Amino acid sequence: MSLTIVVAIVGCATAPPARETAEARCPPPPPPIYSNNCVLKKDVLDVADQMLNENESAEMKLASLEKSFVTLEEEVARALKASLKTVVDEQASVTIVGGRVRVRLSNELLFPSASVQISESGLHALAQVTDVLRRTPSRRIEIAGHTDDRPVLRGWQDNWQLSAERARQVGLFLIAHGIEGKRIFVAGYADTDPADSADSDAARARNRRVDLFIEPTGPN
């Protein structure tokens, strides 16, 4: 009888209270709001400042490159103008158009009427231009032939054929005088891109021309 009572007392002493058992089953408390993996406002601002500085640096570099390119275009244009100083203004001009240097040579300067054989005056002018182009690194030189809106009189099917062949002859001259053929692109436009849309002999004379478009790249 005594032994039974003692065992009962020992069993009661070792059994956990109901309240403590419930607390032991509770989940652990959440980590602090600012744990090691949290994103602080200061970190966000630092990243934003870094991106802003990088953008400003890139914009400055781009502006510098654009300024250098514009300066290069102007230098090439000046050199080409100087090479054509002996040619009258109505027969030759140099300007910058859409990021390219354009040399405009009249057909009166380059070719006899309805012919694709370059005249003496045209050979001299092209030689001067080619001398500048040899010293001007460029990725592309486009040669565009143009006519007026009058039908061709003899020897050619139409103005398309005449304008393309005149442009080709100028391209062949450049290649023969040291310009790489892979840099040259030739096109004939007939009367589809007039320089002057007026219905007059003077306008038609301005429309008969060969345009050279040069894209300088600067030294490699």
CATH classification class of the domain at 71-216: Alpha Beta
CATH topology (fold) name of the domain at 71-216: 60s Ribosomal Protein L30, Chain: A
Helix run count: 7
> Strand arrangement, largest sheet?
1-2-5-3-4
CATH architecture call of the domain at 71-216: 2-Layer Sandwich
Shape: elongated
Number of strands: 5
Proportion of residues in extended strands? 15-25%
**Helicity, in percent?**
40-55%
**What is the CATH homologous superfamily assignment of the domain at 71-216?**
OmpA-like domain
As a whole number of angstroms, the C-alpha radius of gyration is 41 Å
Query: How far apart lie the N and C ends?
Result: 111 Å
Structural class: alpha+beta
**Low-confidence segments, ≥5 residues, pLDDT <50?**
1-13
**Largest sheet, if any?**
5 strands, mixed
Secondary-structure element series: HHHEEHHEHEHE
Mean pLDDT: 83
